Amino acid sequence: MRPYLLLRAAELAAERPAGSTEDVHFTEALAASVIEDTTAVGDVVLDPFAGYGTTLAVATRLGRAAVGVELLAERVERITARTAGRATVVHGDARNLSELLELHGRPVGSIDLVLTSPPYMTSVDHPENPLTGYTTDDGDYATYLRELGVVFAQVASLLRVGGHAVVNVANLATGDVVTPLAWDVGRVVSEHLSFRGETFLCWDEHPPGHAGDYLLWFRHT
Hints:
Helix 2 (28-38) packs across helix 3 and helix 6 (141-158) packs across helix 7. The chain contains seven helices and nine strands, in the order E-H-H-E-H-E-H-E-H-E-H-E-E-H-E-E. The two termini are 17 Å apart. Strands 1, 2, 3, 4, 5, 6, 7, 8 and 9 form a nine-stranded mixed β-sheet that branches. It is an alpha/beta fold. The model has no long low-confidence stretch (mean pLDDT 94). The chain has a single domain, classed as Rossmann fold (3-Layer(aba) Sandwich), CATH 3.40.50. The protein is globular and about 45 Å long.
């Protein structure tokens, strides 16, 4: 675990999915650094919020078994193509993580590393619900955090003893208001896993809306 990493905004922009106006949350180089530091060839890497598949693509490239859950069907198809079918990509809701993975042969205690970045939400002016893919207007910050806790309780059960969970999350600026999302998510995950420390992500240009970007490191002890 490093205290900080130097990152370039141009690299993030270069990895923006084709046809998308939305950047991924972290680069392939960052994913590779975490995966190589915490796992060995043949280990199982999980991303419960698979997004555009950065974690899964890098994990398969490095000889790990990759498993992801993604809510949006079009992204499931994109990840499957990006990983040439070598990753297990489950179409479903991460709030049902344990059930979904058990159906795909990944029972309790079978995961070596979770590397993920949950969908972000600010505490103000954000009616869209991140956990429905921003498709419904029932967003509520307290409910969002509580349901992330449901996800990470399942993450804790799926991780082997000694396994790591590394969460990329940023504090978010909305005008003059800062949502301490990183600290709030860290508190929620710490209810289920042992907090080991943080890595500050030093961007040469901060992604829009970020007040600070972090990797939060946890372990199943």
